[in-house]
Amino acid sequence: MSDAPDRTPASAPTPLPAPLVPPPLVAVLGGGQLGRMLGLAGLPLGFRFRFLDPTPDAPARAVGPLVVGALGDEHALGETVRDATVVTFEWEGVPADAARFVERQHPMRPGPRALEVAQDRLLEKALFLALGIDVAAFAGVDDRAELDDAVESIGMPAVLKTRRGGYDGKGQQVLRSPRDVDDGWEALGGVPLILESLVPFSREVSVLAVRGLDGTTACYPLVENTHVDGILRVSRAPAPGLTPALQADGAAIAHRLLDELGYVGVLAVELFEHDGRLLANELAPRVHNSGHWTIEGAECSQFENHIRAILGMPLGSTEPRGPTAMVNCIGAVPTPGSLLAIPGVHLHDYAKVPRPGRKVGHITVTAPDSSTLDERLGRLRDVAPDLFTGVARAN
Ligand code: AMP
Known about the structure:
Largest sheet: 9 strands, antiparallel
CATH class of the largest domain: Alpha Beta
CATH architecture of the largest domain: 2-Layer Sandwich
Structural class: alpha+beta
Bound molecules: adenosine monophosphate
Low-confidence stretches: 1-5
Number of domains: 3
Mean pLDDT: 94
Order of helices and strands: EHEEHEHHHEHEEHEEEEEHEEHHEHEEH
Shape: globular
CATH topology of the largest domain: D-amino Acid Aminotransferase, Chain A, domain 1
Distance between the termini: 83 Å
Helix content: 25-40%
């Protein structure tokens, strides 16, 4: 027998381990790069994520389990939202019926109404108008006679767009002559359309704002966006030359929409600046490409603020840390080595299979002041010129 003292307490029972409570689960409809960045922002806050996406290699699979299925498939939806604390979406193409199916069982933030409005350009423009938000002249077009009437009343140049399903400039035609009217009808006719007057804007900007569960709102500074062939290429935040008056106008637009929709989460509104006025083009009921700069460029990113909002937490500050630019990687991500030698440069590779025209990553450039930002963007352009194809030097 050992002489060692017996250290086992005579009577104290061994305490049972506390039951493991799994962290709250956020179910996300869509598993693209926006879902991935929502997960990257929400994991440090202690949340779990599960995603639904039709493609097995969806980028969000890196930050949570992925259910592979159609976004309208009730079985796949059920599997995705099982045990979820809250359900959100990262793609506005989620069928409104699917959103309603989910909403019957779980809190869905933002709700189906925002989706419905964002999916139909005519409903969207009508809502802007009803809320006193300026828009280009527009008319719904369901047949050829209505197109002729709309051209007559709106005039040319004008843009003919499909009411549903268009993105990144797809599903639209600019009409400048009677010949274009025939061609536009030929190309797009047969589905519900909208004709809008072509706004001779000085630049495109966007406003991103967030509304919490308690109705508190916060707005990021307006962003200047440069598109090439309908695809966002460069965002600058705050928009160069942003005045307090323009910021107030942009924030008022966002806040009116947030309140009207009883919205919870991040909302983006794409706007045209024309003659010092803002005209609303479209809204995105989700985190947005023109808000990616906030990851490094703002106190609290759009992704973290969306997570905070939908889980009923206090919102984070939307203040910018300094002038910031975001450059999209379209078709390919440049080799990191040369980029990362530039101060203030941050690379986000979405781990997507490269394909022409596909958003596969983005690069954020931060700087203490705008001339340093210009200088860093110039260096980025030198080492990765493809990023700036078609983008004027000022960017
Ligand atoms: P959208 O799909 O509505 O975002 O349009 C894609 C791009 O087409 C916009 O970013 C603008 O550059 C241009 N665009 C769309 N609608 C108009 C309009 N009414 N006036 C001028 N440009 C427009």
